[in-house]
Write a structure and sequence with these properties.
heterodimer, A: 517 residues, alpha+beta, 6-stranded antiparallel sheet, 19 helices, globular, B: alpha/beta
Chain lengths: 517, 392
């Protein structure tokens, strides 16, 4: 108890307000909320010192959240909302703070088949929402890679990337309405220009102020999402390319095809340098510079037409198939039985497609070998179509420096790049792309951490040079760079405006105060 | 050479790091303890954080609550889903990232450091130490029971390892008796070692009593050597798992779960079914047989061979099966808010089964009690009992 900065008097108030069964002061529980499991944790030798919250509160309902926030606001105690903790950002505790775990607010409240709207509490896991809809013959249009543990509330809080981003947009566009509790205890029902989940030009679009706000303005307690019919046909496939240019050209061509909305997942990726040999014991086929894969879902006639077009584009760009690329685990099947399909992929080891299936289905997938068995670090810019190829060349050059041993001698000893790039279409004209690295935290020291930060800054310069942003998908940039990067990304004027909005809504700066400002 | 592999929390640090620095969280997604309690401190990922904190001197293990230490049943859903483990095969305890292994190590360290353990766990351990079984049953009872079975064709090369629950747990005893009847009919030459046979060590290991585990291993290995045992047929998946995954020096001894052995007898034509069992039957995969040892098909194949029986699958089956709650220390003590048995009973009820077939004495105890609590009219029957009913 001596480590706890929040006074007993305040804690007693929490207990009186919501009940002691929802208040957790024991250190083991608090340790579990100290840091999210994202890249930030590799940058700290002892993260318990910096990120251990004072108390964990697990509310059961909006009334609980309201009570908690009002007490916290009165005593100026920081609140950190926490969802599934799958993401790489934002939900770390800090000394003197409260972590608000929304996991017990996990009820689906309303399913409206006529209006294609579903409403759930913030702690509903996406997995459960997706299953619920599937049983009724529908499909979620927000489908994150982290669907197994991500929650509705955190999807709103980070405006997360969806597998179907190119078709339905990111989480924010799928979300039609939210309930949010403000620092003063006011509970708002918000949508776009209205207080019901629809679009209106009467009022302001207040909802989007909270989408992606990462708990800095209020606590999202309910979310309404749209959904769609289950697709009647699904096909998938892939092609290899001799050069990056050909693959990227084919990828961009497909993005703008007449039926491009039918393609729900298009991914252009390379896995060769480390991942393939480690997984298979074989060398990456030298004639393959890049792979392009697709999943097409929808009405049969459109799917057939689009698939025909896909094959034409592959051919026009010298795409080719290899015998070992014949076995392909569809995205659809793989998600249905993730674990078994990982095994299936492994069973087909040696096939290029198995790697693609593996790495994309297990977004946290790592390879346990030597000392490079720990952290996949995802870094996601959003690069415009017209700059994609130029960006890719320059990014690869900078990425190579991590391992060359000259530029970053300390970092090279403890970081290995296993995935130098996979583009996936973002909003029209833009491309998400991740880089993934293996890092074993215990091997990092002060110097290698400084080198990583230095590399990251150079990476950011390249992203900005080509019109991209940090970060579009996994929402992480090193905490120490955040305010500066935020200002750069937003623009000075706009950043100052954000601060004013924050001050207006949260004058005591209690909502997730450690980030952004 | 040691009879089993010792693993310390320190040796497991890399696995802890792997989990703590991983964003995937798949270990938590179907962890029954976490799903029921909804507090990260009982989740595999949370346990990694806590164990790492203990290694870093952030927390004293002696202060860990019973809820944290004893909610895990060792179902290994976490280990099964963890992508880190996909390429690891063979004896895997020290290699795989696993919440169940973390819990074993934490329980073990707590006992090593002289920490308090819950009275019911302590009683079970004392009984194993004194009598070789957790119930405190007298050895004579076991010997008398074995004598009552009239095993004519004794062959100590093949033993039916009944484990430490039998004959002290009534239902498990009936299962063993039915198996004996089936074996007799199939003219299998085998023995039951009686009171010489003690707990395999599966129970002490999950309770964290490494010393007692070692004692059991030493004893059993000596016993197997003395009788030149070549084949062990286990009734309990927990014993099977202990022999397969925890014992060293078992070379030359074939270890089977009884469902594997029964299927061999069926395939060899030594068991012939002559009575129909016209029921809708679902099969509950024991965690220690399924996820821990990949034995999913043999029990199902046996059931499919029984005439008239309609086998239906639950939504959560095979690798995705939901734990009955009895593993680890679940049979001995209750943790507030953890009711895996009731949840599993609900899942069984959802498929309108008349019978749930089991292949583990612990699952049987847990599910029978859950069916009673819920008031479901579903019979909990061991596969051996169904086979006996149809063939004998």
């Amino acid at each position: 108890m001596e480590e706890i900065l929040i006074s007993k008097k305040i804690i007693d108030e929490f207990i009186r307000a919501i009940g002691k069964e929802k208040v957790f002061l024991d250190k083991p529980t608090r340790m579990c909320y100290s840091i999210t499991h994202g890249p930030e944790c590799i940058l700290h030798e002892n993260y318990f010192e910096k990120f251990l919250p004072d108390v964990v509160l697990i509310p059961f309902c909006t009334e609980d959240v309201k009570s908690i926030i009002m007490i916290a606001n009165r005593y100026k105690v920081p609140i950190i909302p926490s969802g599934g903790r799958s993401g790489s950002y934002g939900a770390e505790g800090t000394p003197g703070s409260i972590v608000l775990d929304m996991c017990k607010m996990n009820r689906i409240l309303d399913f409206n088949e006529k209006n294609y709207r579903i409403t759930g509490e913030a702690g509903v896991r996406m997995k459960d929402l997706i299953s619920y809809l599937k049983e009724k013959g529908y499909m979620a249009t927000d489908w994150p890679a982290s669907d197994e543990i991500a929650t509705l509330g955190s999807r709103a809080a980070v405006n997360g990337y969806s597998w179907w981003d190119n078709r339905w947009g990111s989480a924010g566009t799928t979300i039609q309405g939210i309930e949010v509790v403000l620092p003063d205890g006011n509970v708002l029902q918000l949508a776009r220009g209205s207080n019901i989940p629809t679009k209106s030009s009467v009022g302001w679009n207040l909802m989007d102020l909270f989408i992606g706000s990462k708990g800095t303005l209020g606590v999202v307690t309910k979310v309404t999402e749209k959904f769609t019919d289950y697709p009647s046909k699904a096909v998938n496939g892939e092609s290899a390319f001799h050069t990056y240019e050909e693959a990227i050209k084919a990828y961009l061509e497909l993005k703008k095809s007449k039926y491009s909305n039918t393609i729900w997942r298009l991914m252009c990726s390379v896995k060769e340098p480390n991942m393939f040999p480690l997984m298979t014991g074989k060398s990456w086929p030298k004639e393959i510079a890049m792979m392009l894969r697709y999943d097409i879902f929808g009405e049969p006639s459109e799917v057939n037409a689009m698939e025909k077009r896909v094959h034409e584009v592959f051919e026009e760009n010298n795409g080719f198939r290899r015998p070992e690329v014949s076995e392909y685990v569809s995205w659809w099947d793989s998600r249905a039985d993730q674990r078994n399909n990982i095994n299936k992929s492994v069973a087909h080891y040696g096939t290029v497609n198995s790697l693609l299936a593996f790495s994309s289905h297990v977004f946290g997938g790592r390879i346990n070998t030597n000392d490079y068995s720990a952290k996949p670090v995802y870094i996601d810019p959003n690069i415009p179509d017209d700059n994609l190829l130029d960006y890719y060349y320059e990014m690869r050059k900078n990425l190579d420096k991590i391992e060359d041993g000259k530029t970053y001698p300390n970092l090279a000893k403890c970081v290995k790049v296993y995935d130098p790039g996979a583009f996936i279409p973002g909003a029209t004209g833009y491309n998400k792309m991740w880089i993934a690295m293996h890092v074993y935290r215990k091997n990092l020291n002060k110097k290698s951490r400084e080198e990583f930060i230095d590399w990251f800054k150079k990476h950011a310069e390249i992203v900005w040079k080509f019109g991209g942003v940090l970060s579009s998908t996994h929402a992480w940039i090193p905490r120490e760079l955040e305010p500066k990067f935020m200002e750069k990304t937003m623009g000075k004027n706009e950043y100052e405006f954000m601060k004013r909005v924050k001050k207006f809504i949260d004058p005591n700066n209690i909502m997730n105060p450690k980030i952004i400002f | 050479m040691r009879k089993y592999k010792i693993l310390s929390l320190e040796e497991y640090e890399k696995q802890l790091e792997n989990c703590v620095t991983c964003q995937c969280g798949l270990c938590n997604k179907d962890c029954p303890a976490y799903l029921e309690i909804k507090n990260l401190s009982v989740s595999p990922r949370g346990l990694s954080e806590i164990a790492l904190g203990i290694l870093q001197g952030e927390y004293e293990i002696s202060n860990l609550s019973d809820e944290i230490l004893y909610s895990c049943t060792g179902c290994r859903a976490c280990e099964w889903y963890c992508p880190e483990n996909i390429f690891i095969s063979g004896k895997t305890r020290e290699k795989k990232v696993s919440g169940a292994t973390i819990i074993e190590l934490l329980r073990s360290r707590k006992i090593e450091e002289g920490g308090n353990i819950p009275p019911k766990v302590k009683d079970a351990l004392n009984n194993i130490s004194k009598y070789g079984n957790p119930y405190g049953g007298l050895p004579k009872i076991k010997d008398d029971w074995v004598n009552s079975l009239n095993l004519e064709k004794k062959d100590k090369n093949t033993i039916l390892y009944v484990g430490s629950f039998i004959p002290y747990e009534e239902n498990a005893k009936k299962v063993a008796e039915d198996l004996v009847k089936i074996f007799k009919k199939a003219e299998v030459k085998f023995s039951i070692l009686g009171s010489e046979e003690m707990d395999s060590g599966a129970n002490p290991r999950m309770m964290g009593e490494e010393g007692l585990f070692e004692e059991m291993v030493e004893h059993n290995l000596e016993l197997f050597k003395k009788y030149e045992v070549k084949e062990i047929i286990c009734i309990s998946p927990h014993d099977y798992n202990a022999f397969i995954n925890y014992y060293e020096n078992m070379d030359g001894i074939s270890i089977k779960h009884y469902t594997q052995f029964l299927l061999e007898l069926i395939d060899n034509g030594k068991i012939k079914f002559n009575k129909e069992i016209n029921n809708r039957v679902t099969y509950h995969d024991p965690c220690y047989l399924g996820r821990s040892n990949d034995i999913y098909e043999e029990p199902r194949e046996i059931l499919k061979n029984i005439p008239g029986l309609e086998l239906i699958e639950m939504k959560l089956s095979k690798g995705n099966s939901y734990c009955c709650g009895g593993g680890g220390t679940g049979l001995w003590m209750d943790i507030k808010g953890v009711h895996m048995d009731l949840k599993r009973a609900d899942q069984i009820n959802e498929v309108n089964a008349q019978i749930v077939a089991v292949a583990c004495p612990i699952c049987s105890v847990m599910l029978k009690s859950a069916m009673d609590s819920r008031g479901y009219d579903i019979e909990v029957t061991d596969i051996a009992q169904l086979v006996k009913e149809s063939c004998c």
